[in-house]
Amino acid sequence: MYRSILLATAASLTLISPSQAQDSASEDDPTWRQDTIIVTGQQGAYSAETAGVARTSTPLSEIPQSIQVITPTLLKEQEASTLSEALLNVSGVVPSQPSEIVLANPVVRGFEAEIYVDGLIGYGDTAVIDPASLVTVERIEVAKGPTSVLFGGGTGAPVGGLINVVTKTPQAEAFTRVGLRAGSFATLAPNIDINLPIGERAGFRLPAEYISSEDFIDEVEIERITLAPSFGFAPTDQTDVLLRIGYNRVEQLEYAGLPSEVADLPGVDPFQFTGAADAPNTEIENLTVHGTVEHRFTDALSGTFQLRRFESSFREFATSPFLAFFPIEGTSAPIIKGQLPVDTIEWTADASLAAELETGAISHTILAGVTWDDTNYQGGTGFDFTPIGVYDYIIETPELNFGAVPAVTNNLESDYKTLALYAQNQMSFGERFHVLLGGRYSQYELTEIEGGQGTDETFDQFDPRIGATLEVTDSVSLFAGWATGSRLSLFFASADGSAPELETSESFEAGLKFNAEAFGLSGTIAGFQITRENVPTPDPATFITSIQTGEQESSGVELDLVWEPTSQVSVLFSTAFTDSEVTADTTIPVGDAIPRVPDQSGRIAARYRFDGALEGLGAGLGLTWASEADITLPNSFQSDDYAVFDAQVSYEWDRYRLGLNVQNLTDEEYFLPYQYFAQAVVRPGAPLAAFVTLSADF
């Protein structure tokens, strides 16, 4: 009884009911398949049929959408420590760099994606909530394509897709896991994971990590703290309650990037810090409280209510070139200083009912609900355009001093509310043909006050979704889906004070899913096309105000494949071919490529687990690659293509595990597009580095 209750409680973190919600694969299970656990009353029951972001128990083979799940086993065996490292395994995803998260989200199918935490949007459309550690993370789900009906968020629908970070929750068995990660760049990261059952119907869990490290950029030091306690209990056999608290704090010296036009010049040290090293550290502090109540009225009817409060304090201090006003002269540029303080409070609620019924020969899985979001954002910018000095990227430059913090001169207060009604019906006509129909009505309220002038706008929008799946055989299915989406242009600040229009999108995808268990082969092939209108981008004339550029389009083909012929071998292969460009605009040339999106990218990773006398030993090798990518709009410079190898070795015995992760095996020198106030800057890729992990279970 206890196991069933606790697992059901843990499963309520997803979005619907225990029969519909999923916990991830056991860390002890040697598989990279995109499997999830369906709560059936027994711990360790596996199924490849569902995923949490589907929000129902409908098998993945019946859903007209590409959904990828990064399992706990894959995270552990690849020794992934950041969200960016984990997302490399999914096709069509361009991760944000850890130092970039406050200004840019990961990219999915050519457009910035929203990051959700435990099924709810995390702070509008920014990645401030990017987890500082994966120690608190159970699994990561990536839903591509049409997601607008079920996931509208506080600002509106995701465009290219969404990333759902699922945190750890109480389990049935008591355990304590103590770990340590150490290695290059003076990295020292102790962590702990405590799970404590309480009586017959409750449990408590606390994963936590402290990270102290340097960066491969000189002078940069990083400190991160992450805590994610959770408490679950079942007051009755039909009701589950789950409370989660998430706290993270990040502190580091801000790095503004390296101007693209000097990055490849002889004599340039790509790892040199290019500003004032005495600048105050950028600080991010987030606190989240998330409650879920789930009740099963009958075997076929259940309801879920979720409420979350998110509070964030963000203080950015930086020294950087400002290329719009002070272009590169020779090999040097003037350096200015600035600050960006932001305080945010967000309330989010979601209530839904799920029902399963039959009308004649047609079976239905119906989901209907309401979402409410209220966010208050108070921020500002303060730049001192009197340079603190001139930095030469080749010749040794005298030390720059930050001096006094410049005053905030551009204040912005934004309050935005979203109220949305959604409904979806997944219908099965027989065993092999499935149709999905859904719609979402959204009302957006946007109030912004900037410099004593304000915007008060209300928008109403209906977004439909349709899709169909045909199971050709027991292991192969064809699918197609279409949806529209809408979202606010949050933080839109035009030079002339005009109000933003509602951004709209249209998404189409079609493809093939397969799961040939006899050969250990599973995966998804998908083609897609996404069109965005009224797109907000930084104004190239000012770099700190916004314009709505008109229309952008992204299309391409993706492949995600896992081959596991035996329990000893796992091979992952993912690749994407993406064409993303501006298709209509008044200021940016039509045909310019969308920044940060390579035409071709991919990853291949393999793992071998020894048996016999070497049982407990495992070894893996990976290769990640990407073609050139543009850095800004309008296009000016491109980052180079690259190919980077990584390797992992681990050994498990008794209660212990020892792991080694080597990154950039060949010490490849390369640069990545870097989002820093729309400037043409890059950040060097990480050099050769090695990290050791040690953990013990008690």
CATH class call: Mainly Beta
Summed up, the domain count is 1
Structural class: mainly beta
Largest sheet: 23 strands, antiparallel
Note down, in words, how this protein is organized.
The protein is built from four helices and 41 strands. The strands form seven sheets. The protein has a 23-stranded antiparallel beta sheet that branches. The protein has a single domain, classed as Beta Barrel (Maltoporin, Chain A).
Keywords:
disordered N terminus; 23-stranded antiparallel sheet; mainly beta; Maltoporin, Chain A
List the helices and strands and how they pair.
Blueprint lengths: L1 H10 L10 E3 L11 E3 L7 E2 L19 E4 L1 H6 L5 H5 L5 E2 L12 E2 L2 E2 L1 E4 L2 E2 L15 E8 L16 E7 L7 E9 L3 E12 L3 E13 L6 E7 L2 E7 L2 E14 L5 E2 H4 L18 E17 L2 E20 L11 E28 L2 E31 L17 E20 L3 E18 L2 E19 L4 E12 L15 E14 L4 E13 L2 E3 L7 E3 L2 E13 L5 E16 L15 E10 L7 E10 L2 E2 L7 E2 L2 E12 L2 E8 L7 E4 L6 E4 L4 E9 L1
Parallel strand pairs: 8-11
Antiparallel strand pairs: 1-2, 2-3, 4-10, 5-6, 6-7, 8-9, 10-11, 12-13, 12-41, 13-14, 14-15, 14-16, 15-17, 16-17, 17-19, 18-40, 19-20, 20-21, 21-22, 22-23, 23-24, 24-25, 25-26, 26-27, 27-28, 28-31, 29-30, 31-32, 32-33, 33-34, 34-37, 35-36, 37-38, 38-41, 39-40
